[in-house]
Specification:
- Pfam families: Pyridox_ox_2.
- InterPro entries: Pyridox_Oxase-rel, Split_barrel_FMN-bd.
- The chain is an alpha+beta fold and about 210 residues long.
- The strands form three sheets. Strands 1, 2, 3, 6, 7, 10 and 11 form a seven-stranded antiparallel β-sheet that branches.
- About 20% of the residues lie in helices and about 35% in strands.
- A hairpin with a 2-residue loop joins strand 2 and strand 3.
């Protein structure tokens, strides 16, 4: 089993579910990793936490996704960079961040759970959108692979850094401190084929929130 213990800056690590859940619920995308034919495989993916599991989806035509869906060990990593920590030297510079890695095996969801899981994924990313558009067709469902990864004690680790730059251990006149970072939602930009359709409530609410993780 993979050793998830931190061996450096142990104070930044956490195995608390509340810490993990807060990070997973605040970050929209992560990277899913596994090994395919002896080679590393990593792909960025949108995801959603639903209780004690993480939901992911992709095309049924993606061979590597079928590989992890068949039970290959996998890991999902997520990170949000909150600030640049500008030290008095480049060696002492860092970043404030929230990150998590969850290990486990992915299981394809049965047909009677897939529609609800896909709605959960949509609602996680853009709350309210599912009710504004037609349901997925049977053909679209057939092209979509929906998987879940269990959140199991001992199989995840969260790590965070907060605070300002470390105090210099030498005499220096170099400026040091932090530069906070934010991801901001801009005004909705309709597609040309959207015509005169009004911007829906889900998009207005999302854009109105402005600051994202």
């Amino acid at each position: 089993m993979t050793d998830l213990a931190l061996h450096r800056h142990k104070e930044r690590g956490s195995s608390e579910r509340a810490t993990l859940d807060a990070i997973l619920d605040d970050v929209l995308a992560g990277t899913l990793s596994t090994v395919v034919d002896g080679e590393p495989w990593v792909v960025p993916m949108l995801f959603a936490r639903q209780g004690d599991r993480i939901l992911l989806h992709g095309s049924t035509g993606a061979g590597a996704l079928r590989h992890v869906a068949a039970g290959a060990p996998a890991a999902l990593a997520v990170v949000a960079v909150d600030a640049l920590v500008v030290g008095h030297t480049t060696f002492d510079s860092s970043a404030n961040y929230r990150s998590a890695v969850v290990h486990g095996s992915l299981t394809p969801l049965p047909d009677d759970e897939r529609a609800e899981a896909l709605d959960a994924l949509s609602e996680r990313i853009l709350p309210g959108r599912s009710a504004e558009v037609r349901p997925m067709t049977r053909q679209e469902m057939a092209k979509t692979l929906v998987m879940s990864m269990p959140i199991t004690p001992g199989r995840f680790l969260a790590k965070t850094r907060t605070g300002t730059a470390s105090p210099p251990d030498e005499v220096t006149q170099a400026w040091h401190g932090i530069v906070e970072l934010r991801t901001v939602a801009l005004d909705p930009d309709p597609a040309p084929t959207s015509g005169a359709a009004e911007v829906p409530r889900s998009v207005r609410d999302f854009a109105g929130a402005r600051v994202l993780a």
